[in-house]
Amino acid sequence: MSSYDVIFIGSGPGGYVGAIRAAQLGLKVACVEGRATLGGTCLNVGCIPSKALLHATHMLHEAEHNFAGMGLKAKAPTVDWKQMLTYKDETIAQNTGGIEFLFKKNKVDWIKGWATIPEAGKVKVGDDVHDAKHVVIATGSQAASLPGIEVDEKIVVTSTGALELGKIPKTMVVIGAGVIGLELGSVFARLGAEVNVIEYLDAITPGMDAEVARQFQKVLTKQGLKFTLGAAVQGVSVKGGKATVTFKLRKDDSEHEMTADTVLVATGRKPYTDGLGLADLGVELTERGQIKTNGSFATNVAGIYAIGDTITGPMLAHKAEDEGMAVAEILAGQHGHVNYGVIPGVIYTHPEVANVGETEESLKAAGRAYKVGKFPFMGNARAKANHAAEGFVKILADKETDRILGAHIIGPMAGDLIHEICVAMEFGAAAEDLARTCHAHPTYSEAVREAALACGDGAIHA
Ligand SMILES: Cc1cc2nc3c(=O)[nH]c(=O)nc-3n(C[C@H](O)[C@H](O)[C@H](O)COP(=O)(O)OP(=O)(O)OC[C@H]3O[C@@H](n4cnc5c(N)ncnc54)[C@H](O)[C@@H]3O)c2cc1C
Description:
Blueprint: E1 3-9, H1 13-24, E2 29-33, H2 40-45, H3 47-65, H4 81-106, E3 109-112, E4 115-116, E5 122-125, E6 128-137, E7 141-143, E8 156-157, H5 159-162, E9 171-175, H6 179-190, E10 194-198, H7 210-222, E11 226-228, E12 231-239, E13 242-249, E14 255-260, E15 262-265, E16 269-271, H8 278-281, E17 304-306, H9 317-331, E18 345-347, E19 352-357, H10 360-365, E20 370-376, H11 381-385, E21 392-398, E22 404-411, H12 414-426, H13 431-435, H14 445-454
Parallel strand pairs: 1-2, 1-6, 2-3, 6-17, 8-15, 9-10, 9-15, 10-11
Antiparallel strand pairs: 4-5, 5-6, 7-16, 12-13, 13-14, 18-19, 19-22, 20-21, 21-22
Helix pairs in contact: 1-4, 1-9, 3-4, 3-6
Bound molecules: flavin-adenine dinucleotide.
């Protein structure tokens, strides 16, 4: 029907950002989306709705626990779950509508429907076949379950069902202590549910700096979440409106079960490439179903590229966005590039947890000499004033050169604070560079500076 320089398939953070950048660089661009609204998993059923519920329930927590002490006398709020879901839906609509506006502004055509790729250079949507010099697959991911678990999105739910529950459960079992399970688990714990988290490994948030993970588990336990670690889930059965999870403790193979109103299956996500016709095209996949790409996001089939959750690397919106921009630049003849060594990870609980770069464990495994600068938020005046003094900043720097290798923050606004360190790392900064930079007082960011000082002659307020 129409002819384009590039068609992006999927309008998540990878596809929509790539499409906008490609149009800004002068290419004729379309983006195909099968969902009724733009924005992908992230805006519709991921990052944005979960953050709306995290925010609302954090406000509830503040009112219940901290208002009275600050002289704010009010009756504890009651929860109107239906209204909270409306607030969440309005937040989604504002954001997805915003992408539609940006598409119009940048002259990106939104082709509505599900795409297949009949051959390189062609994209079929319904009965229409569009020509494209380049096709970028940005079709994202879907929740991955475990054998023996049937998801009905009512009693046994993925994150998508958890964001739409008809009522707040009294009891919830979360399978998987990763980011999504803990964020949503903490939402329902604050809403009054008894939340039990079952995790296969012996620690929560696999891959996170172990010291931070231990502190994080303590904080969540204080907030009422209960953890069963080292437990292999065998299956989930539903009876009489409740679900029973059976699991074996790995240490002694003993069998146990837990019954709850809702079971949230948060055992990770897998690439979603169904219906594209990749097998017929001969596009190579990894063993985990990810599309194999080279450093320029090109697949083994000329003219077909892939980005975001469909390829390797952390399944994060901002990683997908960066890849979208980079592939657009490459297709426009520029030198798009993503620095995978500086991709922050954030858990948006309260307190937040954020990390970038190396962990102590990865540095030890690589045999690298490093030093640690740590500073607790208890020494930060702003954090104390705001009842947010739980946690610490930890910076890892090269022992010889002082170059920053990684950072880990558990504490207030950790997800924002981490970016000062990301910028420093992009510029190859030493801890001393951060330590010598004047930071406004009183701000949480002073804790980052103090941790940098602790890499050298010592923090002032610890
Ligand atoms: C509950 C939850 C919370 C999350 N929170 C965060 C967070 O706070 N921060 C963060 O960084 N990441 C978060 N993520 C992960 C984040 O959502 C993903 O990493 C990100 O959305 C990936 O972007 P993407 O562009 O690769 O794909 P997606 O966002 O998955 O978008 C792909 C789009 O492609 C469309 N599509 C698929 N196949 C076709 C086809 N054949 N034709 C047309 N359209 C098609 C889909 O409908 C979808 O809209 C969260 C995920 C979940 C589930």
